[in-house]
Amino acid sequence: MRIASLVPSSTEMLFALGLGDSVVAVTHECDHPPEAAGRPHLTRSVIPTGLTAREIDRAVRERTEAG
């Protein structure tokens, strides 16, 4: 079985259930357990990393308004 996990909490549960070897890909948000971070990422954030809270808020508002 090959599993692509698109929800971080699901990724954690899969590893806790001993199915980590079946997880072949995760989201960019999956960082726990540490073994999950090494899997290929199926998603990415459209907001750059390293921004301040104010900059993140502005970026989210702009993208929301743009549709």
Note down, in words, how this protein is organized.
By secondary structure, the chain is mainly alpha-helical. The chain has one domain (3-66). The chain has 3 helices and 2 strands. The protein has helices at residues 8-16, 34-37, 53-66, and strands spanning 3-4, 23-25. The protein has a two-stranded parallel ribbon. Strand 1, helix 1 (8-16) and strand 2 form a beta-alpha-beta unit. It starts with a strand and ends with a helix. The model has no long low-confidence stretch (mean pLDDT 95).
Distinctive features:
mainly alpha; 3 helices; single chain; two-stranded parallel ribbon; about 70 residues
Element order: H for helix, E for strand: EHEHH
State the secondary-structure class.
mainly alpha
Q: What summary fits the major beta sheet?
A: 2 strands, parallel
Measure the end-to-end span. 37 Å
| Stretches with pLDDT under 50, minimum 5 residues | none
Round the Cα radius of gyration to an integer and report it. Answer: 15 Å
- Mean pLDDT metric: 95
